[in-house]
Amino acid sequence: MTRTGPTLTAMAENRHDDKTAGRGRRSTVRSLLRLWPYARAVRGRLAVSATAATLGMLTTLAVPVVLGRIVDGPVADHDSGALWPLVGLVLALGLIEAGLFYTRRVVLSRPLADLEARMRADLFGKLQRLPVAFHDRWGSGQLLSRAGSDLYVIRLFLAFALVFLVVNSLTFLAGAAVMFSLDWRLALIFLAPAVPLLLITRRFEGRYSDASRRAQDQNGDLATVVEESVLGIRILKAFGRHRSMADRFREQSRELRRTELRKAHLLANLWSVVTGLPELAVCCALAVGSYLVAHDQLSAGDLVTFLSTALALRFPVESLGWLLAYANEASTAADRVFEVLDTPEADDPGTRADLGTEPDGIRLTGVRFRYPDAPEDSPDLLAGVDLHIRSGETMALVGATGSGKTTLTALLPRLYEPTAGTITLDGRDIRELPRQRLRELVAVAFEEPTLFSATVRENVLMGAPDASEAQLRSALATAQAGFVDRLPEGAGTEVGEQGLSLSGGQRQRLALARAVVGDPAFLVLDDPLSALDVHTEALVERALREVLGSTTALVVAHRPSTVLLADRVAVLADGRIEAVGTHQELLRDCPHYRELMSGEAAPVPEGSSAR
Amino acid sequence: MTTTTEPVDELEPVEEELLPPPADEEDIPVPPGAPRALLRSLLGPHRGRIAVAMTVILLQQAALQSGPLLVAVAMDRGIPALREHDAGPLIAVMAAYLCCALLGPVLEWAFVKISSRINQDVLLDLRGRIFRHAQRLSLDFHERYTSGRIISRATSDIDALRELLSEGLQELLLVVLSTCYISVLLLVLDWRLGLVSLASLLPLALIARSFRNRSIRVYRRSRTSAASMIVRFTETMNGIRPVQAFRREKANDAAYAVVNRTAATTTADGLLEIARYVGLSRVTANLWITGVVLLGAQLVMHDALELGVLTAVVLYLRRLHDPIDQLAMFLNGYQSAAAALEKIAGLLAHEPTVTEPAEPRELPALPASGRVAAGGREVRFERTRFAYRTGKEVLPPFDLVIPAGQTVAVVGATGAGKSTVAKLLARFYDPTGGRVRLDGVDLRELATPELRRGVVMVTQESFLFSGTVAENIAIGRPAATREEVERAARDIGAYEFIAALPDGFDTDVRKRGGRISAGQRQLVAFARALLADPAVLILDEATSSLDVPGEQAVQRAMRTVLAGRTAVIIAHRLSTVEIADRVLVMDQGRIVEDGSPQELIDGTGRFATLHRAWRDSLV
């Protein structure tokens, strides 16, 4: 059942391929058994619940018997003395029955809600720790539907279906035993449908699992469309395209509807068979039984008992239909959840907490990288990058749009792993450092500044949780984030999705503050000033210069003004470092650099002659 | 006209700062009766099919219930006759039984088919409504109502409703049916005992009602906590890079654990409510039965009742209380769905502030001249004013005329109101006073398709939708051919990088363009705008992530592209200004300078200062 990485991708992209390939391997029971590690904790409760349900059912059966005795005995005999104990018994049974019904539900309420929460927490924790490459492949709607409706389905299965599966089987066995004790021929007739039923349910199981899996996947896709439509609302509005997005949504929800109807169709078939076959068997048993009674081979009383038992078994047999459906849905839901939980986290064998003794700065040697799903014939995005950023130096990284600058910066905190080559910090290979430690050492400001639903303070101090208020202030000052003081609650103001929405420039400044807070040893800035206006940019640059003076930094730059923050500049082209030097040197010696900094043909724009 | 040398940023209010924080769920008022009205409008169109489904289930129950009756007939009539060697009656009974045994499943099959179709159609309808409505709502709404909450409306709230529809209908019907059937039987058997027995329905109804009242509160909390979990979840997964880079995992685990715990507690509370309801109802029902037995026994002993009648009453009374469990299931589903419907109805009841006109007007026809929208259109702001809901004025009333075909650059510091001007022109917001006219027509009088043929805005945010690059560009004009899409990309200088992608224009951008850099995404956004071919083009910081060659390529392209169009360009980088015919400098919501680029550069105003600073920042 363990799925490998490539299969995962296949799952996300093309479920049908995986379905046909996977059909042989998957089994409902095996998938459900995977829930055991979680269900273990509640096994006692499950047992209590099943026992309560069984006893409850027995009590329910006992009450009519006692009632019959009351009517036949004391009441018929006008014996009010004998009436009281029996009425007391009815009362006792009634209370016990209610108690058992209550117990069956109560013992599972909290434990199962907790179990669901535990699985959800595990899923969330796992997802956070899976490599960024995993998230590149999976729409977050797909992940969301796993943490939501899939876990819900699993809980429902454990709460009801599993308990009744046990109880109904027991009831059925007991009933069958009673029947055999009465007359084995009739019992055999009654049990005969079991064989075709087994065959039919097997067939049903395979098909229904397929459909239920497809419905769950389509649900996830639908969640993805909803999410995108909301996140991209400005574009849709700007082009007045909400209708075409709605068409896409409608198309997908129609597909989901088709799958759901297919499920209903399968269920309808199953239910009609599951209720129909036993009825036919009862019909036959009635015919044969009547014949036997007429020929004095069976007592009328026995036939009545036999038939009432058969009728009493109606519910356990019929419930097979929906119990199976539940079990199948829960098993495909479990598959989907474990697909994520089984994905291996990137191994983290790093044990060294210390850096090398030599202040060597950042050194990239023969670093190559390609995205795992890049086509075979495409060249590596990074094809042997050699770069040395001396300790305390600020290096600007310049390259054409799409040349792999951002990718290169993502390798330093190991958000992606190089496919070849080594990266060292002060002589220590970054793979020898535990990821947590590495990420403490390397602070990053991303191209796209993301804020989380938390206060400004929390958002900035993410970079250095132990930093003091003074450090926070100085980081905000460096990023020219003076606007923070004018927010309703200053640095305590909630921002992010659930808080105040800030402009792109404001977010970028907070992201910058986050990177520089607590004086990180190594700093990676990805085009950190793109959304700032000229004036603010100049102020930030001035302040940033001081910070950069005391750290080793790699700064992705698109414009001359940012480049000037750096001591030296590296030019990235065709997956390699084409040239390294000071801004002036490169302007002089490197045509590609000149082109990047000042536009293609024009050397240095002397006045805006173009217009 | 003022010139100031102080840091602009420190003086000016930041415009987005004034947006109120997102409305709390409770802040969005749900008109009383809205959830029920919503349910009615959803089920209304299926009235006919619902009637058919009910009839089918009635017949199915009749077939099912006749089983025991036929057994009795077989025993009482069939067997004695068979002893007399007359198989006739038994065969007749068998035939009847066979009919029922066959009819029951067929009817069941039909019911499942019909009802599932109703359910799915209702869900399809509701999903579509939520989606379309969320799309229709104005930006100011989206800025307050988080995306996660809209997602949860369209996913987990829908799930709650699905639950009710798939099982609830049948359950409720069976409960009602068997209650009616048995009530009648009881009354017919003996009206005194019957009445006493039926009286038990009163306390049971009270218990059900108290359960309803208690559980609706639990389920409301449950919907809210489900939504906040979704918000947390999506935020974390969408920001996975900073999460990992800043070692946020543990802190997130803890934060998620809080919402997760709340959700688990509410879930358990809900389940406990049901358990309590079932337990209490059973106790009540069983006490009642004991009472009826006692009363009946007294009556029989005083010869006021026949023995057989008592037996029957007592047995049927048990069955009167059978549906307690089913009713619990139904109520449970109903409450959960009701809470979800409330949330959904709240969303649906929220009217967009930017509305479609009741009687849309058309823009005057442009002289047709090939591909380009010839000449552009005139834009006219008349005493236009804008203030946030908090009352804080962002733009005091101003007048501005942009003649057709003119390219205007708007500059100024963050918070000066540039973006607000752009948003008013794109009709993302409506002005709080005055109007914006396009070729003399108030924007509010234009239907969306007409408006978007007229005005298109490229924003600095460069979101890509899942799908191919070509599809992302084609959002500009879905009907465009592949050639047109490629030409738009070529015109803006995006062709090379797109062609170099693994599958060229057919490359899937995956999850929000993970592989495509911010600069490339901006180029795609430009190509999209070109393809849309609007008469008025607004560029809001649309080149912030481009490198110098990229920006120059865009500007070169712009010279051709903007010819014959009206354009408003908002930029931090003054390089953009070079292609403008006219520059507006904004400060604190006012236009403080207005002139041709050369005039302003040569002047002594703020723009001249800014321009010098910018020139210094170049190589």
Automatic annotation (TrEMBL), chain B:
The cross-references to PROSITE patterns, in alphabetical order and at most eight, read: ABC_TM1F (PS50929), ABC_TRANSPORTER_1 (PS00211), ABC_TRANSPORTER_2 (PS50893)
Q: What is this protein called?
A: ABC transporter
Q: Which Pfam families match?
A: ABC_membrane (PF00664), ABC_tran (PF00005)
Could you tell me which InterPro entries the record lists for this protein? AAA+_ATPase, ABC1_TM_dom, ABC1_TM_sf, ABC_transporter-like_ATP-bd, ABC_transporter-like_CS, P-loop_NTPase, Type_1_exporter
User: Could you tell me which SUPFAM superfamilies the record lists for this protein?
Assistant: ABC transporter transmembrane region, P-loop containing nucleoside triphosphate hydrolases
Task: For this UniProt record, give its keywords in alphabetical order, as a comma-separated list.
Answer: ATP-binding, Cell membrane, Membrane, Nucleotide-binding, Transmembrane, Transmembrane helix, Transport
| Ranges of compositional bias, category Acidic residues | 7-28
Segments forming domain ABC transporter: 379-613
- Residue ranges of every copy of the ABC transmembrane type-1 domain listed in the record: 51-336
Task: Name where it mostly resides.
Answer: membrane
Indicate the family of this protein. Answer: Belongs to the ABC transporter superfamily. Lipid exporter (TC 3.A.1.106) family.
Give the record's membrane topology. Multi-pass membrane protein
Q: Which PANTHER family match?
A: ATP-BINDING CASSETTE SUB-FAMILY B MEMBER 10, MITOCHONDRIAL (PTHR43394:SF1), ATP-DEPENDENT PERMEASE MDL1, MITOCHONDRIAL (PTHR43394)
The keyword 4Fe-4S appears for this protein = no
List localization entries: Cell membrane
Q: In terms of domain of life, where is this protein from?
A: Bacteria
SMART domains to which the protein is assigned, alphabetical: AAA (SM00382)
Region annotation (Disordered) maps to 1-30
Mind giving the lineage of the organism this protein is from? Bacteria, Bacillati, Actinomycetota, Actinomycetes, Kitasatosporales
Write one Gene Ontology MF term: ABC-type oligopeptide transporter activity
